[in-house]
């Protein structure tokens, strides 16, 4: 089987890796570090260092003591709080999303960007390569990949320039027709450089690696498995067969791994959005009384609100993690519970702070979760508490936006449902209509999703407008939407399907029209997409359209 024939060159992928990422962030925070050798450490390990320190031979993940032997005047900066690294990391990813909606994060400092669409729009532009070219095989393929990748190299330069301008960060880029090649080739010239590889040199690049584990996607445990059937090097793998690998891995995985050894990688760049969870946890000396727990929760909540504020979305769920220490068995045990939170809690957020009353409500919600995990009538020893928010809505923009209007409507509904429950929830902001998280008997986490009810109009529209995680119209069945459409007046607009007609009727006429028109626009677009190959949407397109 000639696997290389399966290797399509139609994509253009750029891999971006920030230079000495944590160190760069520290240099932005403290410019005095720029001209001295310094390392960022966690516990007793230097996790990275600036490039001046690397000239002394300091490598990532060296023991501090070893690093100091190499460079006696090494400055050390603690890097255990990842907050600033994470913050800049997401900013970079968001920035990259203006080049393509297909941006995939890999760790904190790397992103794959599939710029195939952008390249196709620039096919008439200048085509001399920017940056280094890997390999010396000049037998170019006829499929047009040479031109596409060349344009990709110019986009990579543009991306790197813009990252530098926007964030004062330097990075490396690799340009290739697949993710594997883009990542590998980007690392061939560092720092602050970029390299392109054409497919005819892919085998040379793979073969230049020292060991199997240097291939991204082949980690330690896979290497151990492969070793058990005598595959110890990249060459061994190339001389093996997918059938042989199938004795260890499922067929798809076997083929995927085998292909990697030939530089073939069909894996798509998967768009990664914002994180699904924003959370933090703190280990602590054993806490045994409720007051200590409450203090800790208040501290955690304050820090969590800073992260939430930076993220900009509104969470629908809060989760508490508790680690209990059992004195008799000397064992620790983690338990998690979550519940929905009323959106209204976040409506008056001022900067990073929750209004005092909202904070109290939220702390009460969390303490209620705690009491559901820990029997406070009996002695307990809590050695870790964690808090996280999940299931987000985008925050409404503009006071008078439809989103803001509908968000208010959401709150009214939530409050109504709490009032109907007439108990605990009123003071706490817990939305009891969906708080039935039960601890499994084994103590493991259980996350109950809301039952798939018909969506309320407010939810439906708010999600549409707030651009959140609801199924996109593309995932809805267009025919079904049509059938469910209900005409509400003699005007030419209707209630969008799957929506609550009662609430829709309450909306001002111009909003009804706008909502209907939006729905029709989406529906028509959807139909067009079914016959046409999808046109990639850039973030810019999205905003222009909306
Ligand atoms: N990191 C870590 N533990 C590791 C490796 C890295 O905490 N074992 C952190 C520190 C790095 C960041 O992740 O700054 C990104 O990892 P990279 O491997 O990309 O390393 P750098 O960006 O620091 O350096 P380079 O310029 O080689 O990319
Ligand atoms: Mg890096
Ligand atoms: Mg990296």
From TrEMBL:
Pfam families reported for this sequence: IMS, IMS_C, IMS_HHH_1
PROSITE patterns tied to this protein: UMUC
Gene3D superfamilies recorded: 3.30.70.270, 3.40.1170.60, 5' to 3' exonuclease, C-terminal subdomain (1.10.150.20), 6.10.250.1630, DNA polymerase, Y-family, little finger domain (3.30.1490.100)
Chain spans, region Disordered: 426-454
Domain UmuC: 13-219
Biased composition (Polar residues): 426-443
Assigned keywords, A-Z: DNA synthesis
Xref: PANTHER family: DNA POLYMERASE IOTA
Similarity remark: Belongs to the DNA polymerase type-Y family.
Protein name: DNA polymerase iota
Gene of this entry: LOC108567862
């Amino acid at each position: 089987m000639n696997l290389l024939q399966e290797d399509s060159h139609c994509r253009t992928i750029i891999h971006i890796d920030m230079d000495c990422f944590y160190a760069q962030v520290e240099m932005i925070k403290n410019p005095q570090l720029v001209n001295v050798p310094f390392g960022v450490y966690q516990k007793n390990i230097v996790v990275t260092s600036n490039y001046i320190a690397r000239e002394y031979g300091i490598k990532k993940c060296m023991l501090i003591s070893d690093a100091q032997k190499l460079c006696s005047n090494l400055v050390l900066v603690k890097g255990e709080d990842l907050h600033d690294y994470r913050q800049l990391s997401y900013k970079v990813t968001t920035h990259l999303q203006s080049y393509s909606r297909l941006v995939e994060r890999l760790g904190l400092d790397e992103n794959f960007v599939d710029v195939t669409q952008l390249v196709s729009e620039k096919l008439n532009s200048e085509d001399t390569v920017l940056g280094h070219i890997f390999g010396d095989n000049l037998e170019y393929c006829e499929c047009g990949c040479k031109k596409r990748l060349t344009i990709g190299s110019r986009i990579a330069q543009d991306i790197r320039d813009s990252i530098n301008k926007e964030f004062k960060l330097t990075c490396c880029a690799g340009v290739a027709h697949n993710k594997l090649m883009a990542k590998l080739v980007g690392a061939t010239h560092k720092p602050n450089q970029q390299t392109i590889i054409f497919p005819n040199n892919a085998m040379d690049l793979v073969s230049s690696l020292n060991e199997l584990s240097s291939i991204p996607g082949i980690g330690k445990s896979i290497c151990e498995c492969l070793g058990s059937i005598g595959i110890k090097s990249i060459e061994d793998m190339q001389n093996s067969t997918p059938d042989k690998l199938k004795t260890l891995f499922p067929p798809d995985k076997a083929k995927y791994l085998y292909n990697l050894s030939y530089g073939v990688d069909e894996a798509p760049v998967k768009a990664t959005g914002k994180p699904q969870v924003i959370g933090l946890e703190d280990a602590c000396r054993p806490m045994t009384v409720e007051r200590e727990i409450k203090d800790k929760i208040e501290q955690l909540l304050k820090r969590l609100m800073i992260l939430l504020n930076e993220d900009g979305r509104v969470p629908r769920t809060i989760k508490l993690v508790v680690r209990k220490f059992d004195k008799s068995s000397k064992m620790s045990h983690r338990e998690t519970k979550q519940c929905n939170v009323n959106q209204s809690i976040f409506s008056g957020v001022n900067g990073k702070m929750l209004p005092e009353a909202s904070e109290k409500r939220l702390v009460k919600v969390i303490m209620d979760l705690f009491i559901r995990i820990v029997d406070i009538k009996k002695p307990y020893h809590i050695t870790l508490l964690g808090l996280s928010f999940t299931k987000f809505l985008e925050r409404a923009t503009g006071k008078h936006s439809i989103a803001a209007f509908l968000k208010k409507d959401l709150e009214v509904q939530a409050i109504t449902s709490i009032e109907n429950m007439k108990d605990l929830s009123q003071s706490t902001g817990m939305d009891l209509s969906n708080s039935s998280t039960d601890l499994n008997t084994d103590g493991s986490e259980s996350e109950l999703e809301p039952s798939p009810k018909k969506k309320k109009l407010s939810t439906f529209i708010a999600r549409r407008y707030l651009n959140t995680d609801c199924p996109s119209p593309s995932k809805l069945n267009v025919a079904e939407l049509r059938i469910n459409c209900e005409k509400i007046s003699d005007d030419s607009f209707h209630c969008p399907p799957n929506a609550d007609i009662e609430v829709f009727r309450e909306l001002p006429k111009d909003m009804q029209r706008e909502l209907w028109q939006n729905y029709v626009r989406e529906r028509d677009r959807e139909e067009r997409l079914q016959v046409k190959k999808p046109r990639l949407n850039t973030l810019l397109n999205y905003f222009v359209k909306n």
